Amino acid sequence: MKYLLLVPDGAAGHKDDTPEGKTCLQLAKTPNMDKLAKLGRCGKLKTIPEGMPCGSEIAILSVLGYNPKECFTGRGALEAPGLGVNLEKDDIAFRCNLITEENGKIKDYSAGHISNEESAELIRLIDLKLGKPNIKFYPGVSYRHLLVLKGNDFSAYLETIPPHNAIGRKIVDVLINPKHDGAEKTANLLNKMIFDSKLLLENHPLNRRRKETGKNPANMIWPWSPGKKPVMKTFQELYKLRGAAIAAVDIVFGTAIYAGLKPIKVKGATGLHDTNYEGKADAAIKALEENDFVFVHVEAPDEAGHSGDAKLKIKTIEDFDNRLLGRILEKIDLKETAIAVLPDHPTPIKIKNHTGEPVPFLIYNPKEKPDKVQEFNEFSAEKGSLGILEGDGFIRAFLG
């Protein structure tokens, strides 16, 4: 049996996300997910354990059957291997956004979803001017980058706020704070780099051009979610399956690498609504020929949710269903392939941020008797035979 796990990131939401009083997932035309729901079993999965951040870094670990309370150290540490960065024992890695600051406030957590080429130029400048042998910046995808503090002179005991949780707030109110006295030096260093980055980036020719064309400038860095290298068993050790992961964002690639899944990058995979759905589908079909387990992640619905754009989110869900899932279903043998589909967390339009309630899932397995669910959304899944699962309950139900 082959196993295909598909995650439309943030596709779930709330009823008040649209004027119709329905979620985007309910309104989207999803004949392929509905077909699998009819042929399979449904339920809901609690991907965010109590007291943990409502982010993909936590949710994806849960989806894959890991306990975030045991292996999560920080988002930066999970993303590092996705960028080809091998952390040493004492290194502390931070996710480092390029953001837009305006009038002393965070205006945009993504600097207008700045392009890879533009952001790489700015991060290289930041590394040149603010980096040192023990302070290193690494370029990533769009606004998502990495900062690594090397050696044992720094502390990870810091309180940081994700920039997407601080839109419209004053910079001085959301700066990095030490959790104890030993971390004060590190917090002060990072806060100084935040303000120094504004001086370096504000009048950079690239940002001047962005402003002239009506785009948000990438005029400040924002380090958050520090952590050290996690200790995790591989997927093969846990489930005796050889696997691969297809995505566009480093949090998925990094987590996959720690889990022993082969990372597969697809040309044109952007993490946005213009991503290469067909390319990901074709890569998944090929990966299934060579692996027992394939994990495909699509970031686009989450980014639309953060933007508060219901029409765009509906389109990304429909593109996921038609251009990715539909294309896969045309090419694979459903008698020999089990398929699971679920968001990792909700990203409601009204909130423009992640929430922690359970997400709907479907599991199609040709050897299992279907339940009575007829379509796939947040509310139909509640009536599924698998109920509400936690921990590794979902992955074990999927893998049998």
Task: Describe it.
The chain has helices at 24-27, 31-39, 56-63, 68-71, 75-79, 116-130, 184-201, 205-212, 235-239, 250-258, 277-290, 300-307, 310-331, 393-399; strands at residues 2-8, 41-45, 92-102, 105-108, 135-141, 144-149, 158-159, 177-178, 220-227, 243-247, 262-265, 293-298, 337-341, 359-364, 388-389. It is α/β, with parallel strands linked by helices. It folds into two domains: 2-72 and 231-399, 3-Layer(aba) Sandwich (Alkaline Phosphatase, subunit A); 82-227, no CATH class. The strands form three sheets. Strands 11-10-12-1-13-14-2-15 form an eight-stranded mixed β-sheet, sandwiched between helices. Strands 3, 4, 5, 6 and 9 form a five-stranded antiparallel β-sheet that branches. The mean pLDDT is 96.
